[in-house]
């Protein structure tokens, strides 16, 4: 463990040094970005929605971070280790300063985490940080974080997701409402102006500890309508946009002034099966459903091929994803056979919930899936809800036996996803002691390299048990003018530090 | 007159209250903010705890009463999403919406009046046919479709106007046209019809008989009388204009009340929805009242009983 951390730290330092090298030139130029949504706040504890969490990181730093490939790397913490099952120790980076000049140290970590778990903060991220019991300052650059139960994910939680560090002095002086629009982080950019619904202006933090970013000014405009956002890129009003509907990719790729980049987003589409209710308690029925749906055809027709077929609910970018675990092939004959074997030669009637108005389109794939199920004899009636009306249905466990959903694997860690999907609530009722045992063993393994291979058996078990109809992950799409240089990250984070201008 | 205004204002309070109650119920019956506010991966227990912490699990009338008690002091509560007082958030967006809607309204009037008058005075001729064609088209074109077509033509293909957002005068052109088009069509038809009626009146014949030029007859004697019903219709249409602004502001990311409200509704950010409903309902009620009073002033024949 120690050795791994030491290596990680060395690699981190090298990266920092490399980054500092060429970027030592002063930041120049301006890049304009058009996004579908802007942050709701710059208060890291009151963020609502992924669109905020993936953006405000540009102003802050977490104790850990991810590199371009999605690996966990040091950030404000140079190294970390588990002292005992419920205590993680973080050794902090020295000499880091907040935008206003305040020093970053162990007190800041304690202040930030105490604030996050204080009920008075009413933190929206409390569900992800509720695992923390207390934070203790060991010395100015060492902190111990004690968790209520063993939590192998703590270093990821305290990274760019939920571990953005605040300056105590600033936070106290501007107050709860002030921090929403006047953040003071250690990150590569400072927020210098923000008119909600209009634009947000970031300016390079020239004394950033990784080295100054390449671009001096970044202007972000929310452009909600897809057509208007694409138009703004085409006319050169903005240099970078996301998202772009898959249907427009081919056309935009023909424009030689533009560069279109796609990357698999860690959003795992699946159909939850209520395994408690007959006939879905029969494993052959669940396997039949998986054989009945032609997921590749759905990817081709609805996503124009910009997506990845998944064998289970482990996404391609996640730790331990095993391409050797093959997905169910589309085989309507086999589906019928399995249904007959299970005692349903003429199929059966059921209901299928779907919804509109969430972050991604679920209604269209749902329609296609229902079509395939009907072909196989499963007469599913499709219900379509507005997303915020579907939520309470899940909370009250009133969902139909089948419903489409997707979960963003923000942690890139299958156990986090699978634990959530087998929680016994929100319409998800699959339980398997053997699976639990496997996950518990994985969660006790701190070294990702040792943890990764353990996931292969998990994926095999999930595929064979088929508690879900396994679907796909769709690509995120970024469009940019050819004057800028930007590589989207596999975990969806809109990390603008490496953003540069060409030539 | 004074009792009339007082009675109308009292009704206005009831209307605003009623609209607020209905929107409150709709916001909550159709969804719950709790799940939207938590990160993905929150479990059923965490959602339940969050709802309890924020008071979302109290009976609806308790929540409404709690809201109302604060609202009478002008405190609509903090936006769940933005963490800031919701009324100032909405008020800060009023200028943008007023700029858009007033521009759209002026545009509609400036185009509709001459077009309607020309159509009426040259009834059955080519100009009339054209005007009625434009009116028919204007009333049947969906404004969101028109908005996107304009973006593609005027911004992308010809590069004449900015694609979206708010800035200089150029930014307001496309969204204002998109909103104005339906109203313009409606007003053109209205002006034409009333003009035709007015032109058949005795005093118009008298004017002509005493040798006034046709332009004078139309502009001085006929038009002012034809415009009276226009005032009422414009007043009544203001609500629809605001409704149109909600759609158009979203397409153009015009930073007004409409866009902000739509986002608040989708996020079940009920303090903002309530503040917005209050501001918009009050605006519509006040404008209707103003129009009624204006009507009395414009047309001395009308007396309030």
Name the beta content range of chain B. under 5%
- Looking at the structure, what is the overall shape of chain A? globular
Number of helices of chain B: 12
Secondary-structure class of chain B: mainly alpha
* Fourth CATH level, the homologous superfamily of the largest domain in chain B: MetI-like
Oligomeric state of the chains in view: heterodimer
CATH C-level class of the largest domain in chain B is Mainly Alpha
Number of strands of chain B: 0
Mean pLDDT of chain A: 93
Mean pLDDT of chain B: 89
Count of domain modules of chain B:
2
Describe the 3D structure.
The complex is a heterodimer of chains A (503) and B (305). Helix content of chain A is 33%, strand content 25%. Chain A is built from 16 helices and 21 strands. Chain A has helices at residues 2-23, 50-53, 106-117, 126-129, 154-161, 168-181, 226-234, 249-253, 283-292, 295-302, 332-341, 363-375, 387-395, 414-421, 433-443, 448-465, and strands spanning 28-35, 64-66, 72-74, 77-84, 87-92, 132-139, 142-147, 189-195, 199-204, 215-222, 240-242, 258-264, 267-273, 307-309, 348-356, 378-386, 402-408, 468-470, 472-481, 484-485, 500-501. In chain A, α9 runs antiparallel to α11 (332-341). Residues 17-23 of chain A have low confidence and may be disordered. Chain B is an all-alpha fold. In chain B, 78% of the residues lie in helices and 0% in strands. Chain B starts with a helix and ends in a 7-residue tail after the last helix. At the A-B interface, α4, α6, α7, α13 and α14 of A face α2, α3, α7 and α11 of B.
């Amino acid at each position: 463990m120690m050795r791994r951390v030491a290596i990680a730290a060395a690699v981190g330092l090298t990266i920092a040094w490399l980054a500092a090298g060429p970027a030592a030139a002063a930041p120049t130029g301006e890049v304009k970005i058009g996004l579908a949504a802007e942050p709701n706040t710059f208060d890291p504890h009151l963020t609502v929605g992924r669109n905020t969490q993936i953006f405000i990181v540009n102003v802050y730093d977490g104790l850990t971070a991810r590199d371009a490939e999605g690996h966990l790397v040091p950030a404000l913490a140079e190294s970390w280790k588990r002292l005992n099952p419920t205590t993680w120790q973080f050794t902090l980076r020295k000499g880091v300063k907040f935008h206003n000049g305040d020093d970053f140290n162990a007190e800041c970590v304690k202040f930030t985490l105490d604030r996050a778990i204080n009920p008075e903060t009413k933190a929206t991220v409390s569900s992800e940080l509720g695992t923390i019991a207390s934070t203790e300052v060991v010395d100015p650059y060492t902190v111990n974080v004690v968790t209520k139960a063993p939590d192998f994910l703590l270093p990821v939680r305290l990274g760019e997701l939920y571990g953005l560090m605040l300056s105590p002095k600033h936070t106290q002086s501007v107050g709860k409402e002030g921090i929403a629009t006047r953040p003071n982080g250690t990150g590569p950019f400072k927020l210098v102006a923000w008119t909600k619904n209009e634009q947000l202006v970031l300016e390079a933090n020239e004394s950033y500890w990784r080295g100054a970013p390449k671009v001096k000014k970044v202007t972000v405009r929310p452009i909600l309508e897809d057509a208007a956002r694409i138009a703004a890129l085409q006319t050169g009003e903005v240099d970078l946009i996301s998202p772009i509907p898959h249907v427009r990719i081919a056309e935009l790729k023909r424009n030689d002034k533009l560069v279109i980049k796609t990357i698999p987003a860690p959003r795992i589409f699946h159909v939850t099966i209520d395994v408690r209710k007959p006939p879905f308690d029969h494993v052959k029925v669940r396997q039949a459903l998986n054989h009945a749906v032609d997921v590749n055809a759905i990817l081709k027709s609805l996503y124009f091929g910009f997506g990845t077929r998944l064998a289970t609910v482990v996404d391609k970018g996640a730790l331990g994803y095993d391409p050797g675990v093959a997905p169910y092939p589309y085989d309507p004959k086999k589906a019928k056979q399995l249904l007959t074997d299970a005692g349903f030669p003429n199929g059966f009637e059921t209901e299928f919930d779907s919804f509109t108005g969430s972050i991604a389109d679920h209604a269209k794939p749902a329609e296609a899936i229902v079509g395939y199920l009907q072909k196989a004899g499963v007469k599913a009636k499709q219900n379509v809800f507005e997303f915020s009306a579907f939520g309470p249905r899940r909370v009250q466990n009133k969902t139909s036996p089948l419903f489409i959903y997707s979960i963003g694997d923000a942690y890139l860690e299958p156990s986090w996803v699978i634990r959530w999907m087998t929680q016994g609530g929100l319409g998800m009722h699959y339980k398997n002691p053997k699976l639990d045992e496997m996950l518990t063993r994985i969660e006790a393994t701190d070294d990702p390299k040792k943890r990764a291979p353990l996931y292969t058996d998990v994926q095999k078990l999930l595929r064979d048990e088929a508690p879900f109809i396994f679907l796909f992950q769709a690509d995120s799409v970024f469009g940019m003018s050819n004057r800028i240089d930007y590589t989207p990250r596999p975990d969806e984070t809109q990390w603008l530090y490496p953003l540069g201008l060409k030539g | 007159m004074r009792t009339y205004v007082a009675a109308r204002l009292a009704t206005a309070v009831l209307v605003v209250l009623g609209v607020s109650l209905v929107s409150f119920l709709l916001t909550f019956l159709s969804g719950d903010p709790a799940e939207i506010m938590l990160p993905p991966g929150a479990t059923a227990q965490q959602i339940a705890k969050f709802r309890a912490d924020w008071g979302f699990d109290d009976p609806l009338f308790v929540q409404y009463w709690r809201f109302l008690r604060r609202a009478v002091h002008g405190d609509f509560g903090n936006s769940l999403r933005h963490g800031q007082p919701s009324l100032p958030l909405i008020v800060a967006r009023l200028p943008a919406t007023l700029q858009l809607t007033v521009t759209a309204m002026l545009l509609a009037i400036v185009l509709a009046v001459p077009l309607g008058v020309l159509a009426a005075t040259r009834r059955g001729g080519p100009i009339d046919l054209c005007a009625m064609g434009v009116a028919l088209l204007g009333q049947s074109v969906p404004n969101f479709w028109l908005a996107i077509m304009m973006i593609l033509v005027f911004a992308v293909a010809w590069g004449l106007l900015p694609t979206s957002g708010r800035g200089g005068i150029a930014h307001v052109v496309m969204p204002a046209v998109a909103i104005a088009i339906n109203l313009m069509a409606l007003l053109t038809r209205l002006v034409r019809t009333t003009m035709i009626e007015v032109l058949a009146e005795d005093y118009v014949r008298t004017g002509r008989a005493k040798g006034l030029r046709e332009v004078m007859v139309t502009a001085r004697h006929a038009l002012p009388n034809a415009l009276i019903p226009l005032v009422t219709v414009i007043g009544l249409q203001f609500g629809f204009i605001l409704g149109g602004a909600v759609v158009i502001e979203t397409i153009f990311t015009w930073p007004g009340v409409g866009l902000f409200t739509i986002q608040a509704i989708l996020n079940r950010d009920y303090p903002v929805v309530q503040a917005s409903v209050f501001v918009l309902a009050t605006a519509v009620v006040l404008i209707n009242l103003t129009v009624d009073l204006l009507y009395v002033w414009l047309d001395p024949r009308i007396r309030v009983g």
